[in-house]
Sequence to fold (65 residues):
Amino acid sequence: MTKEQLNDCAETLLETVQETITDTIDFYLENNNYQFGENFETEEKQIEYTETVYEMIRQQLKEKI
Fold:
C-alpha cells in the first residue's frame, strides 16, 4: 500500500471508531433515561463520556503497541 492509501485507511478507521463511540454512548444514555435535545446536562454527559472513552482507548493502544 502507498502512504496515501495508508492515510486513507487510517482516516476511515478513525471515522468508524468515532461514529461507533458516539452511537454507543447515545445508546447507554438513552437506556439510562436521558432525553436528547431537552437539556444541556445530556450534551455535557455525552461530551464527558466521549472524552473518557477516547482516553481509555489511547491507554489501551499504548499498552498493545
User: Anything to note?
Assistant: The mean pLDDT is 86. Helices lie at 3-31, 40-64. The chain is about 85% helix and 0% strand.
